[in-house]
Write a structure and sequence with these properties.
It is a single chain. By secondary structure, the chain is of the alpha/beta class. The protein has helices at 8-30, 45-60, 76-88, 107-113, 125-133, 141-153, 172-181, 196-201, 249-252, 266-285; strands at 4-5, 35-41, 64-70, 94-97, 161-165, 185-189, 205-208, 226-229, 233-237, 240-244, 258-259. It folds into 2 domains: 31-123, Leucine Dehydrogenase, chain A, domain 1 (Rossmann fold, 3-Layer(aba) Sandwich), CATH 3.40.50; 141-267, Rossmann fold, CATH 3.40.50. β9 and β10 form a beta hairpin. α1 runs parallel beside α10 (266-285), α2 (45-60) crosses α10 (266-285) and α6 (141-153) crosses α10. The mean pLDDT is 97. The structure holds NADPH dihydro-nicotinamide-adenine-dinucleotide phosphate.
């Protein structure tokens, strides 16, 4: 039997449609649309593509997109001053600081300067702390997207063995916290984990957030498991460039119970969750 393919594109479209309805209601009630400011420093081509997609999705959901594209050599002090202006701007509900940034900028310092209640990426230490202690805050969008995909797969989390491969602040740590919150038994694996294959084989839910193309083989997967593949790597194959995940998909699809494809799995969910977070920020700030 082959796995159920959990289609992130379809789920993201559904979420975006729901967000658009709620954004229209917000606009009607408050006389302004929710606003998302994006700050992009330098000319990293991948970041430009991501920001363009985010802007397009924001506008399509009926929200206001405010873009700040700054030259690579912009001094950190100028970026911090911009962040403070955005924090004080009542029309801005969410602030997105696109990573990576040029070397002379301390990304941590800039993220620290963002008002935690406008930190729709959920990267601020205050929001990481809120997540860790179970308070209401903003959760990183990719981690939220993983949880929605698990929900879509119909996987029961209470008491389940969940293995998260990767421990970044962006994905691995927040998704582990969310799984724990849903009463899964969570193992976080990383580059120093011994016998990763047998750790993965225990998983009823396996989340791969590494960035190594097809590292996770079919025989690392427990039959019937739910597999969420966060990894995105660009590889050359058969004379063409393609995007692949951390999971060796063709074999894994024969073993897993449910699996997300790459592309078209976690990727579209990340932007859908960013829009949801922006709407939530607007609602929270307006007291609704
Ligand atoms: P990081 O590079 O920050 O983290 C990678 C993690 O993988 C680290 O914890 C690292 O361990 C672990 N790791 C590296 N090599 C191995 C190995 N051989 N065995 C086990 N673990 C290993 O990456 P991110 O978390 O930012 O992203 C992970 C992947 O997800 C990337 O491919 C990225 O492109 C993708 N991504 C996709 C998104 C989407 O929207 N779909 C959004 C964000 C990321 P250690 O800590 O020990 O070094």
């Amino acid at each position: 039997m082959t796995a159920r393919i959990v289609d992130g594109k379809v789920l993201a479209e559904r979420l975006n449609a729901e967000t658009a309805v709620k954004a229209a209601a917000f606009t009607k009630a408050h006389g302004r649309a929710p606003g998302l400011a994006a700050v992009l420093v330098g000319e990293d081509p991948a970041s430009e593509v991501y920001v363009r997609r985010k802007v397009k999705a924001t506008v399509a959901a009926g929200m206001v997109s405010i873009e700040h594209k700054l030259p690579a050599e912009t001094p950190e002090a100028e970026i911090l001053a911009l962040v403070h202006r955005l924090n004080d701007d009542p029309k801005v509900d969410g602030i997105l600081f696109q990573l990576p940034v040029p070397k002379h900028i301390d990304a941590g310092r800039v993220i620290d300067a963002i008002d935690p209640d406008k930190d729709v990426d959920g990267f601020h230490v205050v929001n990481a702390g809120r997540l860790a202690v179970g308070f209401d805050g903003f959760v990183p969008c990719t981690a939220l997207g993983c949880m929605l995909l698990i929900g879509e797969a119909g996987t029961r989390l209470e008491g389940a063995e969940a293995v998260v491969v990767g421990r970044s602040n962006l994905v691995g740590k927040p998704v582990s916290q969310l799984l724990l919150r849903r009463h899964a038994t969570v193992t976080m694996a990383h580059s120093r984990t011994r016998d990763l294959a047998s750790v993965c084989r225990r998983a009823d839910v396996l989340i791969a957030a590494v960035g190594r193309p097809r590292m996770i083989q079919a025989d690392w997967i427990k039959p019937g498991a739910t597999v969420i593949d966060v990894g995105i790597s660009r590889i050359e194959e058969g004379g063409r460039r393609r995007l692949v995940g951390d999971v060796a998909y063709d074999g894994a699809v024969q073993v897993a119970g449910a699996i997300t494809p790459v592309p078209g799995g976690v990727g579209p969910m990340t932007i859908a969750c960013l829009l949801q977070n922006t709407l939530r920020a607007a609602e929270r700030r307006s007291g609704t």
